[in-house]
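We both want to read discrete structure tokens more fluently, so let's practise on a single case. Once you have written the record down, we can walk along the chain together.
***
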Amino acid sequence: MKVADFKAANTLIPELQTKLDHALPQAQILVRKLEQGPPFNAPLEVRLYGPNLDRLKSIGEDIRLIMAETPDVTHTRETLQPGTPKVWINVNEEASQLSGLSLSELADLLHASLTGRVSGNVIEATESIPVRVRVKDENRENMANLSSLRLPVRSSEGLTGLPVFALADLELTPSRGAIPRRNGQRVNVIEAISEPVCYRKPLSTTSSKIWKFMPRQSLPATQLNSAVNRRNEMNQSGT
């Protein structure tokens, strides 16, 4: 979006940010001004270095809370994010054996039911389109439906539908996402975004709170970076 001058941009950015935050509360949308100078993702960044990912995550959440409680800070975020949740299946081997299913057969049935299995093809002009058969989307959209999913099991009476909960317990657990690194070290970068016209006040307030908080923690290294400091460093180096 183009405006006539910087004053109009500084006035428009917080208005757009507020409207978008209210219109789409489930998403994080950042309205920013195109500026010159050293590149940076946020006006204030805290880099936490250490080998223990759980510790980096825990301290990062505490610092995020300090940033979020600072007036004029509109958004906070961190680079150490969880991955896609995974469903762990703890199979009762006795019940599985009584039903005539081995662990590998049970795994194949679940895979075929959820992912599907190609059962034929449809010829359209010169193109052959595979037909994949699987359970309905509503049968695999939450844990209750997954647990109640019926698997085809052979018995003396023929094929019967045996629910998953009769054979196994399901558990939804978070997984580890991508591990960010900087110069070969594991790092969690916590960012605070404020309104452009309010950079210096939130930066100084948040920085002092973070430095009071960090001595109580035990990490190999902590680096506090701000947009103002980076600009000063670039000016002093003449770049």
User: Anything to note?
Assistant: Helices lie at 6-23, 53-68, 93-98, 103-114, 143-147, 200-213, 227-237. Residues 226-239 have pLDDT under 50 and may be disordered. The chain has three domains: 1-30, 35-83+177-237, 86-173.
